[in-house]
Amino acid sequence: MSDWPTRTATQIAAAVAAGEVSAVEVVEATLSRIAVLDPRIGAFTDVVAGRARAAAAEIDLRRAQGKPLGPLAGVPFAVKNLFDIEGLPTRAGSRINRDRAPAERDATAVRRLEEAGAVLVGGLNMGEFAYDFTGENATDGPSRNPHDLTRMTGGSSGGSGAAVAGGLAPLALATDTNGSVRVPAALCGVFGLKPTYGRLSRGGVFPFVYHLDHVGPIARSAADLALAYDALQGPADGDAAVASRPLEPTFPGIEDGIGGLRIATLGGHFATGGEREAFEAVRLVAGALGAERSIEFPEAARARAAAFVITAAEGSALHLERLRSRPQDFDPAVRTRLIAGAAVPAAFLAQAHRLRRWFADAVAKVFEEVDVVLAPATPCRAPRLGQTTFELNGETVLVRPNLGFYTQPISFIGLPAACVPVWLDDGLPLGVQIIAEPWREDRVLRVARALERAGVVAAPIAALA
Amino acid sequence: MVEAPPRLTDEALEAHLDAATTLLGLRMDADDRASTLAHLRATMEAARFVAAFPLDDAVQPAPIFRP
Questions:
Q1: Chain A closest CA to B45's CA: distance in Å?
Q2: In the structure, what pLDDT confidence band is assigned to residue B1 with cuts at 50, 70 and 90?
Q3: Interchain pair A357, B28: CB under 8 A
Q4: A229: in domain
Q5: Do the strands A76-80 and A171-176 form a parallel or antiparallel pair, or are they unpaired?
Q6: What is the DSSP letter of B4?
Q7: What is d(CA A377, CA A182) in angstroms, rounded to the nearest whole number?
Q8: Do A351 and B50 touch (CB under 8 A)?
Q9: Residue A120: pLDDT band by 50, 70, 90 thresholds?
Q10: Do the Cβ atoms of B50 and A312 come closer than 8 Å?
């Protein structure tokens, strides 16, 4: 089997641009690898082979004609199946949505990656309606962690983490409402970026919680995240929350290093509750960065609680009519959470939104003293498939709502955060969040790249043979 | 800090869930009841934790949130 699918996006784009390999060869090798390996992984729900072949041939033609190629020319990518793909119903991981009419056009993010030359190869498995941190799916089956097929990928972007870790695509699109980019990136040992809230358009993305949903890439290197993130920036295009900002490319400065950055580890909420190794991973990263200081986000636990409440109430409101008309077609594990969320009194929801403003202002003051902060991504390594509970803060709690213990307070106020993969031993990976103040994705990615260059973080392809 | 609200009893939770599902027109199977109540308890405890934090009246929610 050709090893092109297991190269990074940056390597593939450079090779295609230089004529070392054709886009068609890369795409054919990718489709072959998906066909051979995905039945064991469960990352893909749709493969758009014809479309991919045609797009790759077009790129090769452009090159032959001497026309300019985009920065992601010939790079295969796949998208969580809540991104619209023209001609397919947008499943959003659900049984119900597959009865929808096929999407009439691609999601904005899909179009932007294609405009940069990337080649869509398919749609990816996910937790039902994104209300999930496990990557399990009652209808499509679980996405399996490529590094241990008996373990969870994490979710809800489970197929995105699995596809990249398994070398089925060097680049995947995901979404993150409470941690759904960062949790699967952490458990699958790959890089993920959740940009600032309002930075990337969610046009053509099936919603979950309007006030918290973000779009972001998952890849196998920091440079790949930067290339994808830069290509994804642009006008609002169907998303009223997108801020009016100029393009702020991060790729050109990705090698700038950490000089001048004040970096600290988050204490308090982010230093308690999880397993010892989650904090070991943070210590390893902090040590490599020379980050000796610890700092706290005040009321982070309450911030997480508020994100929990907003998600429950607003996610339930979105699905209320479906809960009335087709309750039997939901995954029971999702249905009962949504029914509970529908019963949240409005006064509590309003208070949670006000706490969001308060917390954002309090955290902004913290960022007067530091530029980047570090925190665990998950409290533990990948749980077993089917595992329903784990230990958190000495208590037995449900996996599905609680793997985002450390990610929720960050996305709650829309801070940009990368998740970088740490391998403490021969076991499964852990993720560390690199977090900055709003709109400073450049800093997050510079730190991720510096760690990669120092050999502290890496995203090896799973040994699937 | 405002005074903690009274303990969330099983009876209060069940009464609230039954009233809310009735008002919202939601059916709930008997098999779902225990799980739904457990999620409602977790969510209400989170909500009460949030609501127990004193916020100045001037603190505003944002229709379009800007971080």
A1: 9
A2: very low
A3: no
A4: yes
A5: parallel
A6: P
A7: 7
A8: yes
A9: very high
A10: no
What is the per-residue pLDDT for A213? 97
Q: How far is CA A43 from CA A78, A161, A225, B25, B65, in A?
A: 10, 8, 20, 36, 33
- Tell me, yes or no, if A305 comes closer than 8 A to chain B by beta carbon: yes
| Cα–Cα nearest to A371, from A416, A425, A324 | A416
Residues of B in contact with A413 (CB under 8 A): 67
pLDDT confidence of residue A1: 62
The answer to whether position A186 is within a domain reads: yes
**Amino acid type, A445:** L
Overall number of domains in chain A: 1
Domain that holds residue A394: 4-453
Residue B65 with chain A: CB contacts under 8 Å: 197-198, 211, 241, 356, 414
Say if the Cβ atoms of A299 and B53 lie within 8 Å.
yes
User: pLDDT value at position B64?
Assistant: 63
Tell me whether residue A458 is in a domain. no
CA A50/CA B25 separation, integer angstroms: 45
Q: Does A389 touch chain B (CB under 8 A)?
A: no
In the predicted model, what is the mean pLDDT of residues A220-236? 97
Closest chain B residue to the Cα of A356, Cα to Cα: B61
Contacts of A438 in chain B (CB under 8 A): 67
Residue where the block lists tokens 């308090």: A268
Q: Give the residue extent of every domain in chain B.
A: 10-47
**CB atoms B50 and A348 under 8 Å:** yes
pLDDT given for residue B7 in this prediction: 82
CA–CA gap between residue A306 and residue A300 (Å, rounded): 10
Bridge partners of A171? A77, A219
Is B49 within 8 Å of A305 when comparing Cβ atoms?
yes
Q: Rounded to a whole number, what is the distance in Å from the CA of A100 to chain B's nearest CA? A: 22
Which pair of tokens denotes residue A314? Answer: 């607003």
Q: Cα dist. A102→A90, A352, B61 in Å?
A: 7, 36, 36
Asked if the structure places residue A463 within a domain, the reply is: no
> Which of helix, strand or coil describes residue B58?
coil
Residues 204-233 of chain A with CB under 8 A from chain B are 211
Q: What is the CATH number of the domain that holds A19?
A: 3.90.1300.10
Q: Could you give the percent of chain A with pLDDT greater than 90?
A: 97
Among A351, A360, A438, the residue with its CB nearest the CB of B51 is: A351
| Side-chain-side CA neighbours of residue A204 (13 Å) | 24
Interface confidence (ipTM) of the complex: 0.90
Q: What is the pLDDT of residues A164-176, one digit of tens each?
A: 999 999 999 999 9
